[in-house]
Amino acid sequence: MGLIVTKQRLKKQTDFLKFKALYGNPLVRKAVAYAVERGKDGRLRLERILDQIASGDGRPRGLNIKDRIVRKVVDIAMKGIGIETEEQARFYASHPNIRRTVMNALLGAHKFGVRFPFIFYAPLMIVWNITWRCNLRCKHCYENAGPLRDKSLTWDEMTTEEKLAFVDEVADSYIPALSFSGGEPLACPDFWEVVEHARERGLYLSMNSNGTLITPEVARRLKELDFAYVAISLDAPGPEVHDDFRSIPGAWRRTVEGIKNCVEAGLTTVISFTITSLNHQYLEDMMRLTEELGAYRLMVYNIIPVGRAGYELDLTPEQREEALRKMYDYLARGGSLCTTAPQLGRLCKMGEHPDLVPIAHLGTGKAKDLSIIADLVGGCGVARAYMAVQPNGDMTPCVYIPDVILGNVKRDRILDVWHNHPFMKDLRDRSTYWGHCAVCDFKEVCGGCRARALHYFGDPKGPDPGCILNRKFYYEVAPKVGAPLGEAEPEREAAKAANRGSGREPSRTARFRPHLAPRHTFRLDWQN
Fold it and tell me: How far apart are CA 155 and CA 432, in angstroms?
């Protein structure tokens, strides 16, 4: 995501608190309610305010009393999120995806109130698994895509017309960012046509790819289409482990070539490293390789036991804590890294460098630059700032929670699902979490990974077993699902033997969630 950064932490906190206090005034709330209504031209009245700011007119001329109040609220809100000068305000008010972000935040304040962590009116980003096609055979694919996709699963994908209509709805719903994933997006036959349309609608574009199809020509085209960044998956600093994960000899070499092609084309290039029990020892090597290849950042993904990824690939809480410490130290040395493990927020708050502030998996920086945004995003962004869409149009809370189908973009409106689905509404309430996540001092800056809680305990409000503070819960469930026990390996073997003797050994495909489907597969029942 493109982040708006602040320059003086104390001043920005004061500005945001001023906005929060101002918004507490009933007259101001009424004026904002008026501003988010649609006028005769079908546009929000708030858009008229932003038009005036974009034009460089610093004085609220030609506005009625309500509009003048709204203009004042917008001015203070912009200062609260780091927009200092009139020149910056003009740029942000006219830039399509930043304009959507500002409107999204103000609409969110109107609908959900000013709260920490913040609930946006619409997702800040949708990750779109645009296809199940893929040229690799990855053992840990969360989407169960490509040639190894289970034959019992659907291969149905949206038509080109349906995809273009979906892009329009994203743009019209104040969603600023669209991230293409898969499968392999470049294996999608109509990928370029869809991307061209998304660019025309002014969306912030990014892509997650395996890199093997990124030739110099493809990289240049991605650059021409204004992709904000391209993230390329690499599982190890050398071919052996990576090619074994991807089940294709030579995959590592082709992926590294794709990375080099992106860097050469001037694309912001991110290396995505999924950390597992088989490659966690290479984390620091991957940090060095990221720098050697000239990539912008290393993105460290949690392994989630979903799709083809088995529990045996997970880390123990101790191994993950060690990895988080290495990430923190790398950041403290000035390295560029982010992670989907929200627990990094705890380390930053507890560590010797409290000015380091992670923003979920959107990035990490100095507190003087990012403190307000960090408070807004507040760790795991599921149901507050982020949502996923599958190749057939199914909407899911997260790419790692594909079993919870919220609706389908071919028949349901994104905003209807985002605002009204009981799963999303329930997940926003962190007061009902259990495990250590319920009482954690870092609940607001972390929140735990809800996908990990779901796949281990069948409850998205349960403890995140990847956190060292939830180790008790991890070691209770690990023997039942076949997750690593680390130094307790003999205990694991005994537990597996006991399970075999009782017929309770979990299968790789069934997982340890026999009660998941009736409890969490809502589909459209919530509308009936």
Answer: 37
* Cα–Cα separations (whole angstroms), residue 393 to 131, 153, 179, 328, 524: 10, 15, 15, 37, 14
Q: Which residues contact 166 (CB under 8 A, 6 or more apart)?
A: 128, 158, 389, 393, 409
DSSP character at residue 160: H
DSSP string, 456-496: HHS-TTS--TTSGGGHHHHHHHHHHHT---GGGHHHHHHHH
Residue-wise pLDDT tens digits, 326-370:
999 999 899 999 999 999 888 887 876 656 655 554 554 444 444
Separation CA 35–CA 47 (nearest Å): 8
What radius of gyration do the chain's Cα atoms show?
Answer: 23
Residues ≥6 apart with Cβ < 8 Å to 436: 463, 467, 469, 470, 472, 473
pLDDT of residue 359: 53
**Peptide bond just before 402 cis, omega within 30 deg:** no
Q: What is the pLDDT of residues 457-509, one digit of tens each?
A: 999 999 999 999 999 999 999 999 999 998 655 444 544 544 444 343 333 33
pTM of the entire predicted model: 0.87
